[in-house]
Design goal:
alpha+beta; five-stranded antiparallel β-sheet; 169 residues; single chain; three-stranded antiparallel β-sheet; 34% strand
Amino acid sequence: MKISPYQRFSREQGASLIECLVYIAVLGLLMNIALFGFNRCWDDNKHLRRNAEDITRALKAGETWRADIRNATGTIQVVAVADTEQVVIPQPAGKITYSFAHGEVLRQAGANAPVTLVLPQVKSSRMQADPRSQVTAWRWELELASASKKPVLLPLFTFESVPPQPPAP
């Protein structure tokens, strides 16, 4: 039986154990890089979702506050109570009170109504009158507490509203 030149054994016909180990090491390195990238994207997605939820809550709270200001039936007052400032907005059904304490904005609609949490995790909140030439507008400056130490974008909001003006005599 004759052996053809194509059937001869040579070192090039198979992979050695060392070559297999090198391929496995390269594959492991590529998998680690891919896993790192996936985890980074996952964390960024989580932070983006949390920021979007905070912005949505702040906008809803601002729209509620603006509606309360627009429905005011009398003079809006800023009252200092203990270490907090409260904004009292007279309404047809009673007074609505907004207060900021311990990093939370609270709202109470009526004297006997329960206090509801409007916004958690607030760094600063200030509601103030903004006198203009013809009317007195109200401004709410709000800064949310950031989860990261160095946020890329500061969570600052400013809402403005004008209460109804009494008819001129």
